[in-house]
Write a structure and sequence with these properties.
- With 320 residues, the protein is an alpha/beta fold.
- It is built from nine helices and 13 strands.
- The chain has a seven-stranded mixed β-sheet with strand order 6-13-12-7-8-9-10.
- The longest helix has 13 residues.
């Protein structure tokens, strides 16, 4: 397996929609389930297999996926081998990551994407899967989807709206949202390529080949189970590094289960982001329902998106 590098990266947008879009799905297509990080249990895997069959897809499981008692689904080499097989197989049209957790960044340097670029396919996941989204957008220029993973099919009814939107996009290529206004929104209109994902994972990618280059992009961020001052520290790092200055806009997802030290930080998420971006004029959208709690609506990374906000509503439209 080749080590990833900047050589051969595809940073030029191919068309008006942004990066290269893998083909839409059709009935009978093969859908891979791969665990690049932590594992899932058998019950969750069975729920995913059943739902994918109901979507009239043919699920293909690339083990190791279920490893009871283990933090990772397998060794780095095993997980990389499984992911590589799914990437290389031209019959696979979509890859559902089994779950997040931790481990994707450990196998990313072991993967090569030559065959994938000849036969691009949708890669779906969030949280730890942010490592793949970042690399795909900024170094291969291939679109991917920030959305619920295989483990979440077990909660299908709770996440039905998110899964319905994901299925509609995969088969029809259309995705848009009309959301209620948020009191912290910075109104305006912005259009740009969507990038981002989990804030902590993006912070861990700084200085690596999978690092973001978000200038002229719309940046989406979400996180879970972090101290509020950690969130501020990561944003200050992004600001000092020049990330926030050149954005077209920002979308703030859910920041759930935030924590405080014994001495409170004294600012909530909305205040932290408002302060970090106050000197910039681009629109900032708060409360988008994507992340580790709530609906977790799908977002297409590497695709051009338009956000429009005023006192009455918020519109998010992916350009197709």
């Amino acid at each position: 397996m080749a080590i990833l590098s900047h050589r051969g990266s595809r940073l030029t947008f191919r068309n008006k929609t942004g990066c290269t879009a893998p083909p839409l799905l059709k009935r009978g297509d093969k859908a891979a389930i791969v665990a690049p990080a932590s594992s899932v249990n058998e019950k969750a895997l069975e729920a995913a297999l059943q739902k994918l069959k109901e979507w009239e897809l043919e699920p293909v499981v690339y083990p190791p996926v279920c490893s009871p008692g283990s933090f990772f689904s397998g060794t780095d080499a095993e997980r990389a081998r499984a992911f590589q097989q799914a990437l290389d197989d031209p019959a696979i049209r979509v890859i559902f990551c089994a779950r997040g957790g931790y481990g994707s960044i450990r196998i990313l340097p072991l993967l090569q994407f030559r065959n994938f670029l000849n036969h691009p396919k949708w890669i779906i996941g969030f949280s730890d899967v942010t490592a793949f989204h970042s690399y795909l957008t900024h170094h291969l220029c291939v679109q991917s989807i920030h959305a619920p993973m295989a483990i979440h099919f077990e909660k299908y009814e709770t996440l039905k709206d998110a899964f319905d939107k994901l299925k509609h996009f995969l088969f029809e290529g259309e995705l848009s949202y009309a959301l209620p206004p948020h009191p912290f929104n910075r109104h305006g209109t912005a259009e740009g390529i969507l990038t981002g994902g989990n804030l902590s994972v993006l912070y861990s990618l700084r200085g690596t080949p999978a690092d973001l280059h978000p200038h002229h992009h719309i940046l989406f961020l979400e996180d879970v189970d972090e101290y509020l001052y950690h969130i501020d520290r990561m944003l200050i790092n992004f600001k000092y590094g020049g990330w926030l200055k050149g954005l077209k806009g920002m979308i703030i997802g859910t920041f759930s289960e935030m924590k405080e030290k014994q001495t409170p930080f004294g600012k909530q998420i909305e205040e932290i982001f408002s302060e970090a971006t106050k000197e910039y004029s681009y629109p900032v959208l708060f409360g988008f329902p994507a992340g580790h709690s709530g609906e977790n609506f799908p977002l297409v990374m590497g695709r051009k998106v338009r956000i429009t906000m005023d006192e009455k509503q918020t519109l998010v439209n992916f350009i197709s």
